[in-house]
């Protein structure tokens, strides 16, 4: 049977649950374990395929054609494993599946309820990820923040899952914020305390707490969180702000997060093979050249709408020790009659045009394409 790690978030969004989950998966894979990743999103859309990129960012398409959340792109880039349809579950997908089963009589006339029918469907999706992937350990990120009404049934399902599998087969990592108040020059633990209390109200006791803070916590703060969180002080993992996100797994490794997980699961603790990751960090931090690439798109006001393109450009630059500076250009801005394209693209060594929905901005894309062809600028169109 697979082991399961659940990553939840508290206090506010944007704390880095996805990077935390990816880092844990990377570190466990570096120990020789087969890992698989999954994301639960609490929105009622069946999948992000029809959602506005400006609202939700890019749609990440997996190898089997599933349209999924952009966090799956982070997962694949970190762990170098292909994910699939079981990796992205939404409230909409769960409710749609249960209603479809009810319509064809699968429940034999039972009254359909949140518990047990919806919660059972969620648990089935978790088990399915483990069995279909053949993974030793499945890491599941829960979207949103603890206390959100949208994710309440997911949290209830996880409570039941822990009851069914026990602490030797499931583990909870809770990410929280420890803000620094510059007026009094101190770190405040109250948001973390309240977040843990909210999680306990849902019947879940965290096994590991990952704290996002701008500076080191220090022993006093860690002991305070340990006391109020009812977990050993060594199970409090610091996620201090960094300028290079690739450094985060190494910071976690130094705090033994993967060994803590393996100990709870009664799995063998082996040597970690992280040389390739350390080499990547060294490369990223010592880029000796830089060039500008123009990205002409319709949704450039939200860079996450083109996240995989952005990350692919950066990765291509790493191969040649080059920092890629992306110039974000709204394709509609190129549609004016007096646009000086030579001025706009004067420093661009390449032009990329990603895909988009509808006809808005298409004329600007065509002009950029034509300019690249006439001026012999390397060009890539993605659609």
Beta-strand content bin = 15-25%
How would you characterize the largest beta sheet?
Answer: 7 strands, parallel
Summarize the amount of helix as a percent range.
25-40%
Mean pLDDT: 94
Number of self-contained structural domains: 2
Structural class by sheet pairing and helices? alpha/beta
- Report the CATH architecture of the largest domain: 3-Layer(aba) Sandwich
H-E string: EHEHEEHEHHEHEEEHEHEHHHEHEHEHE
Q: Spans with pLDDT under 50 lasting ≥5 residues?
A: none
Report, as a whole number of angstroms, the end-to-end distance: 41 Å
With strands numbered from the N-terminus, the spatial order across the biggest sheet is: 5-2-6-1-7-10-11
Shape: globular
Molecular structure report:
By secondary structure, the protein is α/β, with parallel strands linked by helices. The chain has two domains: 3-278, P-loop containing nucleotide triphosphate hydrolases (Rossmann fold, 3-Layer(aba) Sandwich); 288-381, 3-Layer(aba) Sandwich (Rossmann fold). It is built from 14 helices and 15 strands. It has helices at 17-30, 53-56, 71-79, 91-103, 114-133, 152-165, 190-201, 219-229, 247-254, 257-264, 275-284, 307-319, 341-344, 362-374, and strands spanning 3-9, 35-41, 60-61, 67-68, 88-90, 137-142, 170-177, 180-181, 186-187, 208-213, 236-240, 289-297, 322-330, 348-353, 379-381. The longest helix has 20 residues, at 114-133. It is globular and about 65 Å long. The mean pLDDT is 94.
